Amino acid sequence: MSAQKLVLSQRAELVQALSRGGTAEGVDCVLDLLISWGVLLWEDYVCACVLPEAQKTGLEFGKCVSVVKDDREPSTMATETLLCHRPFLVSRLRDHVDGALEHLLGRGCLTSADREEIQLPVYTSSQQARRLLDKVRFRGEDSAMVLLHYLDRTTSPPPPEKENEQPFWLVYQKKLCSSILAQCYFLSTCGGAGKYSLDDVYTDGLLELSQGCGDTQVSLGLEDVLGQVGTLNEEADTVLVSGQAGSGKSTLLQRLHLLWARREALQDFLLLFPFSCRKLNAEERELSLRDLLFLHCCWPDRDQDKLFAFVLDNPHLVLLTFDGLDEFKQSFSDERRHCCPTQAAPMSTLLFNLLQGSLMKGVRKLVTSRPEAAGPSLRQYLRKEVLLKGFSPGGIDCFVRKHHQDRGVASGVLQALQSNTALLGLCHIPVFCWIVSKCYKELLGCGKGSPQTFTDVYLMVLQHFFRRKSPQQKSLGSSWLLEHFQTIMHLGQLAFEGLDASCYIFSEVDLQNSGVAEEDITIGFLIHSKNFSSTDERHFEFLHITMQCFFAALHIVLSDKTNLNQIRTLFQTQCKSKGCIGFCQPREQSVMTTESSNPQITAKFVSGLLSQHHSDLLQQSCSATMLGKKSKCVVKCVSKGVQRHFKSIPQPVKGEKKSMHAMPSFVWLISCIYEMQDSDVAMNSVARLEVDHLKLTYCNIGPVECTALAYVLQYLRCPVGLQLDYNCVGDVGVEQLLPCLPVCSSLYLRNNNISDEGIRRLIDKGVHCESFKKIALFSNNLTDACTQDFAHLLKTKQIFLSLRLGNNNITSRGAEQLAEGLRCSQSLQYLGLWGNKIGDRGAEALAEALKDNTSLVWLSLVGNGIGNSGAQALAKIIQKSKTLEEMWLSKNCITRVGVEYIVKALEENVTVKSVWLRGNNLSQPEVEEFQRECRLIF
Ligand code: ADP
Fold first, then answer.
1. What is the pLDDT of residue 43?
2. Hey, how many other C-beta atoms are within 10 angstroms of the C-beta on 34?
3. Could you give the CA distance from residue 666 to residue 685 in angstroms, rounded to a whole number?
4. Which atom of ligand 1 is closest in space to residue 546's alpha carbon?
5. Whose CA, among 9, 260, 622, 743, lies 20 to 30 Å from 313?
6. What's the rounded Cα separation, in Å, for the pair 771 and 746?
7. Where is the CARD domain (predicted)?
8. What is d(CA 834, CA 862) in angstroms, rounded to the nearest whole number?
9. Phi and psi angles of residue 191, each rounded to the nearest 5 degrees, phi first
């Protein structure tokens, strides 16, 4: 029979096999059929299996033998049977791989090494079945017989009765789980040698509700991401996890997928469909929802119609996840409505209607994105938003120890981080933690010159990969950049053009166009893009988006084709096209949004690379004049950008302070200055800032940004109030802020995960800073252990005005220690201890210390479990004070007796304007009776 006839006669089987889109499964199924028909010789089959995906399509079976399915004698050889019935056996075996392995092992047909190899979690169950068949066939007749008997007994005859059959969705669920397990087992950045399983290295990141979704300080667990807590809009189905690049969003999603597939979490959802927006970008066809689910995730072998109906009928049992919305080439828009699940539409329409809820209402969707990409039009459709804030200090410790089995190495890395707090600050972002752990040899070997900036860290990883390529060279020579210049330029061009076109996955043609050769790939910055479904070509992506930005920056800096206008464009602060740098595409071609995270990261690297600090390295491969011009241009752009912010500050209303609420790009510009590590640039850019109050609330400021802020703000001419409420400063961030403490008159750090350790360091420095007079630390993790430090501050600094420690964990013991400082303070005017647990004993201690105080104006002890004896003691302050104006005692457990002490004290006081007593233990008649004293407020 001719090949053509064969294909025609077996068309139905081939079509069915090929239509298993989304994975290599389709091609593998065809290969199964071909080998079973004898069209392929075993050698051809093996070659085809190891071919890159791209070449599988072009298979030519030149050596095919003339034996075809119909002409062959039924075989009596068991090994032959394994070949002839391969497609059937794969489908039989795939749900019984573990059992079959045990059986074969027990009979000495396979070794445990064989078993481990077959069961590698990166294989789907069908792939495991194929490997098992191959191994057994090569063990010979006896082993093949054992397997066939086992399959006969275990899997056949198939259950005859319909009611014994597994529900159709369960069969599909198993396939989904198996494909998800295969995809999620290893971390993507750990591609190549030294793979780490997610189980081995996954470390919990800090998850918090975003502003407006409830108590933002509560830290959440993984299950809470899709749980009820923080729900803002019950009608909406989309949950957003947002975080900056490298904060661990994809890894978190990967973890959730893995737990679901292993039945360890999210078991309310029977089906989970994972999508990557990066990959959806490549879908140019119009698809129906059904195609999207089945073609892009996992093809159901049967019952497609029933399954799709099941999904539509049971939306609450289905979860869709979309990783990296920021990388989707179009910005979210709700202009085009599409509600029909069977009607085809462009990918963007499908995606946006799913998120917005017109399509598949009731199906929960979990989306990850950098915050910039989730604008107000998407936010109105959100069920809730969860912020991923990277690692806590404990998380860094845990990650490093998980990464290094060798305890000595782990301790060495942790020590190196402790002695370089700028680097420790960077490690709060998991991708940096990963780089630092990966490059531990370089880190431990670099002594005092250990990395300080984003750019330093990425140059370190660059050297690491090049060194790995030539292991005989223990350390790279000083001209390493020159030696690898061509590779850097090829990858740089690929990265740069990719960013410019919002492209993060590259075909082999893209690689060729940028001159990226096989040897450039082997260095390791590019990894294979797993399960890229649009074609069977090989596809690649950079290890991480930040790596792509770094190579783009190298291209901008090193290429003599970059002109200064391009650099100016990169540093423009407003309105960049989505993801796009805007060099190659005319502006109007892309949708304009404020999303500009990739250009901002690239600009930061450009600033760092053009710093004086790295000029020796760069001058080896390009002209000093060109670098000098580019560097000057960057300095000018950044300084002008900062000045523009200052000019935008409105003139203060008479009597009020001049206050600047920073725009989002302000922190980025400051970070660019920090990357340059040039104090003159820092000084010049803030020299003209005249402002009393700098407000940077909700700006996603972590330790890294604190390092940069302090580096620049230390050069301010006049002291400012620095308001950093609702960020993620933490103890490391506090330490990073210390260089600018001398120019801070007040520091506002509400809700910033700060603990006693951070306070200790802050006060050590603060006592020596002349201008430092106020601090607000509501809602942090403070305990009694920090009150001695505050006491020391109050004793030492007789100009200190305001101490606000509300909503922490201070008890009576802490109040007693604080009292020691209060006793000596002649200056404190505001003391806030709202929402602690000082109780009567604490109140008595404070009252005792303040009895002769001549400065206190405002005292808040709301919600502190204070009863009558506390009230009696506090009444003594009222009685004697000539300065106190307000005392807040709401939400305590004071009764009539206690209030009577206060009333009495008020009779002798003329300064107090109000004593707040709402929410104490008083009846309505008692309240009415006490209202005769108009300064009592109930
Ligand atoms: P994002 O999606 O936010 O850009 P990724 O999830 O890609 O960040 O994280 C970048 C890298 O950081 C990962 O490849 C991994 O090496 C490391 N990483 C991130 N989160 C974790 C985590 N929770 N545990 C261990 N490593 C992590």
1. 62
2. 24
3. 12
4. 4
5. 260
6. 8
7. 74-151
8. 5
9. -55, 160
Which residue's CA is the nearest one to ligand 1's atom 26? Answer: 202
User: How far apart (Å, rounded) are the C-alpha atoms in residues 387 and 371?
Assistant: 9
Sheet with strand 886-888: strands edge to edge: 659-661, 693-695, 720-723, 744-748, 774-776, 802-804, 830-832, 858-860, 886-888, 914-916, 936-937
Q: How far, in Å, from the CA of 211 to the mean position of ligand 1?
A: 24
Residues of the chain with pLDDT under 70: 1-27, 29, 35, 37-76, 121-122, 155-165, 188-195, 213-217, 447-448, 471-477, 531-536, 573-595, 652-656
Q: Would you say the CB of residue 641 lies under 6 angstroms from ligand 1?
A: no
Distance 878 CA to ligand 1 centre (A): 56
User: Is the sign of the CA dihedral 694, 697, 701, 702 positive or negative?
Assistant: positive
pLDDT given for residue 752 in this prediction: 94
775 Cα–ligand 1 center, Å: 35
Does 371 sit in the ligand 1 pocket, CB within 6 Å?
Answer: no
Within 13 Å and on the Cβ side, how many CA atoms surround 630?
32
Mutate to test the pocket of ligand 1, among 250, 251, 386 (most ligand atoms within 8 A of CB): 251
Asked if residue 760 lies in contact with residue 786, where contact means CB atoms within 8 angstroms, the answer is yes
Give the tens place of pLDDT for each residue, 710-748.
999 999 999 999 999 999 999 999 999 999 999 999 999
Which residues lie closer than 8 Å to 25 by C-beta, 6 or more apart?
124, 126, 299
**Closest to 538 in 3D by CA, of 89, 911, 894, 58:** 58
Q: Is the CB of 438 under 6 A from ligand 1?
A: no
What's the whole-model pTM score? 0.79
CA atoms of 550 and 617, how far apart (whole Å): 16
pLDDT in tens, 42-68: 666 665 555 444 344 333 333 333 333
- CB of 247 sitting under 6 A from ligand 1: yes
Query: Residue 220's closest CA among 231, 208, 210, 229?
Result: 208
Amino acid of residue 691: V
**Which among 554, 578, 555 is positioned nearest to 500, based on CA atoms?**
578
Residue 404, helix vs strand vs coil: coil
Strand partners, 209: 386
Report the separation in Å between the CA atom of 323 and the middle of ligand 1, taken as the mean of its atom positions: 13
Of 602, 605, 709, 601, nearest to 662 (Cα)?
709
Q: Which atom of ligand 1 is nearest to the CA of 252?
A: 23
846/821 Cα distance (integer angstroms): 10
Residue among 190, 198, 399, 431 to mutate when testing ligand 1 (max atoms within 8 A of CB): 431
Burial 800-836 (b: 16+ CB within 10 A, else e): bbbbbbbbbbbbbbbbbbbbbbbbebeebbbbbbbbb
Whether 203 is in the pocket of ligand 1, judged by its Cβ within 6 Å, is yes
The count of other CB atoms within 10 Å of the CB of residue 693 is 18
With a 6 Å cutoff on the Cβ, whether 434 touches ligand 1 is: yes
**Alpha carbon separation from 195 to 39, 120, 438 (Å, rounded):** 37, 13, 12
Index of the ligand 1 atom closest to the CA of residue 431: 12
Nearest CA to ligand 1 atom 4: 246
Is there a contact between 630 and 618 (Cβ–Cβ < 8 Å)?
no
What does the chain come to in residues? 938
- Residue 883 near residue 853, CB atoms below 8 Å: yes
User: What distance in Å separates the CA atoms of residue 426 and residue 730, rounded to the nearest whole number?
Assistant: 13
Alpha carbon distance 137, 6 (integer Å):
26
Helix (H, G, I), strand (E, B) or coil at 110: coil
Please name the residue whose Cα sits nearest to atom 23 of ligand 1. Answer: 203
List alpha helices for 419-537, DSSP H: 421-426, 430-438, 440-445, 454-469, 480-483, 485-500, 508-513, 518-522
Query: Position 465: which residue type?
Result: F
Q: 712 and 683 in contact (C-beta within 8 Å)?
A: no
Determine which residue's CA is closest to atom 12 belonging to ligand 1.
431
Phi first, then psi: what are they for 804, rounded to 5°?
-120, 115
Q: 608 and 675 in contact (C-beta within 8 Å)?
A: yes
Tell me, what DSSP letter sits at residue 888?
A: E
